[in-house]
């Protein structure tokens, strides 16, 4: 094998150049590798989230302002100085409230009792009803000696944040204890609930099936008439009028909490998935409670609303076909049927079975009235509006509630709902942010983009704003209802922002991405390329080192021989080339 | 000879004209993903010209990915179907003519070199003559469907071949301008700058002169490119086309399936790794330019072929039009054919994928009885064919070089060729 020496050298040079050009391209690729696979992580305010979960910077509190109006129809016995006496009554009320409340949650609903100097003249109920309080969290108690013949203390809670306490004995002690007990009974359970909620001690409650739907700024109400078949003769219903009459006032009042859109539909030939049992003795068909979960024929009844993205609540009127009428809900044959003939599906809606004569094709407004009443109470439950008249514990005197005729609720309950929703939203937002913080901390591969940082920051700002608003709603007696509503708005925004950050698709996709995946991605690509490249690089380096060493050895050997350096250099090169060739 | 030449070109012209006249064929071929890609589709070009002629910025909508000057070229003639067809047909025929000329120039070159002796001291048989090369291009089914499907890759191919032709002729300015135009039209041909500069400096012994020519060429190339960009800017009035044309070519943002390797990969890719792998894939295409040019600096024409095949295989939006280019350049280097080992396999792979690609596409998209994997598998087979072609031609070229460098012993003993080295070891 005889290759010209210069050509071998040229081939060597070519090989090195080729290798070098590839390596340069690869080295240029490294910064791009770094840049394109960098896990971008926007800074998230973890500390702040942690602070909020302890409520260390601001603990939401809903101060209540109680205006006590004393009747001057009868003067208090033993009064010397009315000013001193008023102060005494106020401090006594506060003392009694604090001593009678077993829970330590008073900081969540701090009471401020004010005895209004301007005494209340009348003793008539109408005087109270004429003076409503429009500010959430501010309540007026009108106190007068009892006018009834039974001479017993009684309390009547009116619908517009007023209360009328009629005291049996017109003494300072009686007055203060009556007020204190009323306050405790009306607000006590709410206070503990909020306390538990804020301190995350409501786990056992959360585990229970909640009737109320998750809070949203708007709901879609769908009223559906399902007619079994033509035999029952139902053709249409006057739903629009019925809604305007029975639902609209309630929905309007509730609009401070959530907005509602309403739609209705009629569906014919809506068959059940099962045959109701016949109670031959009572001559009626019946549904047992264990069958109720299967009542809705999800396959055939189209209930999904297509028009809006709001969470929807469904209200169904089912008119059974003639051959299954009457249809009642009872626990078994012979048992008394359900009075309302209706049932509620938690977080979904309500259903009423309506039995009616077959000859009338139109469901009139008056026929729908009982149905609408049922739906209204179901809607209250679904929205989490607690009924004070049933939830207030029994005490030494009766408390009666006068609901607003049109809305069938009191503003007391509305205020309670507002406070509950605000605290729920705040707690949920902070919980969500906390989970997000833990998730991001636990997943170092997760990309955190700028929009997420913005969402989190904005959510925290909203939490702060809401918290400050509820605090502030208190201190000034002149504050309007808008402070609480603004707080609700902020808390809602906070929750939306927190959830949009948590459920951001860019984060969800990277939820599970362990390092092994990276090897799986890089290995097939780089191993086949890098092995020959590295090997040839090593080979070249070895050759280069060997050649250098040899040259050095030769140079030192020949230097002693005293030869000319230039000639020696040329000689070396030749030898080097020869060595390479033989290799 | 002249008669024969004109007969061949007339036949190619008539065939294309006849195919253009078959109703619906142009639309059918133009709609095939194997023929038109998002960056070469005539439909998109027409859309761009329409938008342009109505004063709407053509690059706003994300539909048009063709270079602005192409819009400018078609703007005056798009209303006349005949003119458009003639432009395509003549463009294709001109490529054939240039290939013929290139082969002729190369034959002249190699006649000055000493002939490589083959086994048994016989002189190497002459390669294909220019007309055969032109015929192989003009009657290649890939060329024909790409032309009748009105893929705009034709213009990029035209500029590329013109660059090589001018390089062979030694006209620096035109060679560099053509390569710049090809780079301007579809970016990847910018790799051909190196071999074309080698073409221009072939036979030049003086090192300083070579250096001078190189610098001059680099200047010419950059100046041509800059003037093309400037002209485009004047034409469309904005620089949006950079993002829309080269951004799409490099970023592979339109994942319409094609014969290439990108689309399926990036459909399945984790979003986080997308930019990284796009960079890797694109570097992979360009990484070949320098090593091939260095290694094959003695045979730049073959380097031109190899690089066109590399870009036709590994680019983001390959089509059969890219295959038409490198398959047209391959017979120019016909002297390596006898050293190729897998010709049969390669031909079979091309035929296999050409037949099955439309079928699997139909199964996937129209019948729904197949899925994307079917079509991608055919794309893989096609790419394997291309890669084997690359490997085999490179091997054949190296083998021929070896034969040339180590001629067999003039006398005595059996001539073992390549095996001698093995035997010695």
From TrEMBL, chain A:
One Pfam family cited in the UniProt record for this chain: PIG-S
Subcellular compartments: Endoplasmic reticulum membrane
Main subcellular localisation: endoplasmic reticulum
Topology term for the membrane: Multi-pass membrane protein
GO biological process: attachment of GPI anchor to protein; GPI anchor biosynthetic process
Signal peptide boundaries: none
One of the record's GO cellular component terms: GPI-anchor transamidase complex
Pathway(s) annotated for this protein in UniProt: Glycolipid biosynthesis; glycosylphosphatidylinositol-anchor biosynthesis
Chain intervals for the UniProt region annotation (Disordered): 555-583
Chain intervals with Basic and acidic residues compositional bias: 566-583
UniProtKB keywords: Endoplasmic reticulum, Glycoprotein, GPI-anchor biosynthesis, Membrane, Transmembrane, Transmembrane helix
Keyword RNA-binding belongs to the record: no
Family membership: Belongs to the PIGS family.
Protein name in the entry: GPI-anchor transamidase subunit S
UniProtKB/TrEMBL annotation, chain B:
Keyword Signal appears in the UniProt entry: yes
Keywords: Endoplasmic reticulum, GPI-anchor biosynthesis, Membrane, Signal, Transmembrane, Transmembrane helix
Gene Ontology cellular-component annotations: GPI-anchor transamidase complex
InterPro entries linked: PIG-U (IPR009600)
Any Pfam family the entry gives: PIG-U
Compartments (UniProt record): Endoplasmic reticulum membrane
Region (Disordered): 403-425
Transmembrane segments: 73-99, 142-168, 174-200, 220-239, 245-266, 273-294, 300-330, 342-367, 373-391
Protein family: Belongs to the PIGU family.
Protein known as: GPI-anchor transamidase subunit U
């Amino acid at each position: 094998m005889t290759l010209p020496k210069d050509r071998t050298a040229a081939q060597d040079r070519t090989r090195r150049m080729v290798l070098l050009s590839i390596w340069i391209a690869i080295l240029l690729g490294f910064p791009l590798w770094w840049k394109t696979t960098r896990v971008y992580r926007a800074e998230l305010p973890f500390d702040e989230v942690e602070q909020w979960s302890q409520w260390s910077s601001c603990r939401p509190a809903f101060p209540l302002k109680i205006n006590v109006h004393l009747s001057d129809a009868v003067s208090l016995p033993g009064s010397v100085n009315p000013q001193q006496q008023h102060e005494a009554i106020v401090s006594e009320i506060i003392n009694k409230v604090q001593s009678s409340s077993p829970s330590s949650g008073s900081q969540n609903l701090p009471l401020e009792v004010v005895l209004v100097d301007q005494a209340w003249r009348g003793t008539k109920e109408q005087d109270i009803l004429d003076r409503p309080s429009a500010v959430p969290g501010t309540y007026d108690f009108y106190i007068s000696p009892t006018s009834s013949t039974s001479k017993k203390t009684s309390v009547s809670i009116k619908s517009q944040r007023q209360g009328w306490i009629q005291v049996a004995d017109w003494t300072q002690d009686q007055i203060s204890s009556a007020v204190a007990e009323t306050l405790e009974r009306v607000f006590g359970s709410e206070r503990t609930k909020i306390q538990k909620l804020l301190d995350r001690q409501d786990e056992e409650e959360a585990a229970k099936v909640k009737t109320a739907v998750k809070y949203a700024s708007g709901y879609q109400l769908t009223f559906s008439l399902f007619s079994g078949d033509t035999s029952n003769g139902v053709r249409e219903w006057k739903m629009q009028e019925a809604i305007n009459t029975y639902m609209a006032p309630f929905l309007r009042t509730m609009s401070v909490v959530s907005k509602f859109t309403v739609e209705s539909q009629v569906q014919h030939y809506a068959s059940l998935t099962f045959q109701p049992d016949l109670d031959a003795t009572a001559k009626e068909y019946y549904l047992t409670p264990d069958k109720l979960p299967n009542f809705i024929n999800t396959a055939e009844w189209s209930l999904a609303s297509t028009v809006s993205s709001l969470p929807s609540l469904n209200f169904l009127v089912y008119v059974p076909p003639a051959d299954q009428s009457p249809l009642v809900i009872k626990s078994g044959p012979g048992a008394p049927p359900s009075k309302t003939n209706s049932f509620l599906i938690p977080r979904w809606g309500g259903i009423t079975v309506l039995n009616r004569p077959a000859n009338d094709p139109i469901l009139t407004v008056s026929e729908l009235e009982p149905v609408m009443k049922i739906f209204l109470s179901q809607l209250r439950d679904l929205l989490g509006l607690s009924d004070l008249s049933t939830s207030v514990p029994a005490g030494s005197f009766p408390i009666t509630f006068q609901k607003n005729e049109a809305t069938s609720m009191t503003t007391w309950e509305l205020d309670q709902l507002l406070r509950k929703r605000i605290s729920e939203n705040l707690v949920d937002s902070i919980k969500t942010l906390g989970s997000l913080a833990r998730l991001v901390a636990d997943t170092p591969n997760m990309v955190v983009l700028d929009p997420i940082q913005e969402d989190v920051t904005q959510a925290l700002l909203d939490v702060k704003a809401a918290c400050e608003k509820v605090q502030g709603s208190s201190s000034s007696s002149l504050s309007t209802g808008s402070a609480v509503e603004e707080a609700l708005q902020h808390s809602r925004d906070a929750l939306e922002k927190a959830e949009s950050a948590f459920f951001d698709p860019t984060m969800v996709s990277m939820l599970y991405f362990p390092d092994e995946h990276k090897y799986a991605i890089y290995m097939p690509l780089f191993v086949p390329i890098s092995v020959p490249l590295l090997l040839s690089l090593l080979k070249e380096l070895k050759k280069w080192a060997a050649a250098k060493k040899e040259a050095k050895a030769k140079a030192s050997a020949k230097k002693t021989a005293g030869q000319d350096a230039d000639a020696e250099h040329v000689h070396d090169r030749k030898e080097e080339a020869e060595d390479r060739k033989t290799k | 000879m002249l008669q024969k030449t004109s007969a061949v070109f007339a036949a190619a012209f008539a065939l294309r004209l006849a195919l253009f006249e078959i109703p619906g064929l142009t639309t059918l071929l133009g709609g095939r993903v194997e023929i038109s890609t998002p960056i070469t589709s005539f439909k998109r070009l027409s859309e761009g010209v329409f938008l342009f002629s109505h004063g709407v910025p053509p690059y706003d909508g994300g539909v048009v990915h063709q270079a602005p000057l192409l819009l400018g070229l078609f703007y005056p003639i798009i209303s006349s179907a005949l003119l458009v067809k003639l432009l395509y047909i003549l463009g294709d025929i001109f490529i054939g003519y240039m290939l013929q000329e290139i082969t002729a120039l190369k034959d002249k070159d190699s006649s000055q070199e000493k002939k490589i002796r083959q086994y048994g001291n016989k002189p190497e048989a002459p390669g294909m003559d220019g007309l055969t090369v032109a015929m192989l291009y003009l009657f290649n089914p890939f060329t024909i469907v790409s032309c009748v499907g009105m893929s705009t890759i034709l213009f990029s191919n035209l500029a590329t071949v013109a660059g090589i032709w001018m390089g062979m002729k030694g006209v620096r300015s035109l060679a560099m301008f053509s390569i710049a135009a090809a780079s301007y039209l579809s970016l990847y041909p910018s790799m051909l700058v190196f071999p074309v500069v080698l073409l221009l400096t072939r036979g030049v012994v003086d090192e300083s002169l070579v250096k001078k020519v190189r610098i001059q060429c680099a200047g010419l190339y950059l100046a041509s490119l800059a003037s093309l960009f400037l002209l485009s800017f004047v034409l469309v009035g904005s620089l949006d086309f950079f993002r829309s044309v080269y951004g799409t070519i490099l970023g592979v943002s339109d994942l319409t399936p094609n014969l290439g390797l990108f689309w399926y990969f990036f459909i399945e890719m984790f979003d986080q790794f997308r930019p990284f792998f796009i960079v890797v894939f694109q570097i992979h295409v360009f990484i070949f330019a320098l090593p091939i040019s260095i290694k094959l600096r003695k045979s730049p024409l073959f380097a031109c072929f190899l690089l066109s095949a590399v870009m036709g295989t590994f680019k983001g939006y390959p089509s059969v039009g890219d295959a038409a280019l490198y398959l047209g350049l391959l017979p120019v280097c016909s002297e390596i054919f006898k050293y190729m080992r897998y010709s049969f396999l390669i031909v079979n792979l091309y035929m296999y994928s050409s037949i099955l690609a439309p079928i699997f596409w139909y199964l996937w998209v129209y019948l729904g009885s197949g899925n994307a994997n079917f079509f991608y598998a055919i794309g893989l087979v096609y790419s394997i064919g291309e890669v084997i072609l690359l490997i085999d031609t490179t091997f054949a070229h190296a083998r021929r070089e070896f034969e040339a460098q180590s001629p067999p012993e003039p006398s005595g003993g059996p001539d073992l060729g390549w095996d001698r080295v093995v035997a010695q070891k």
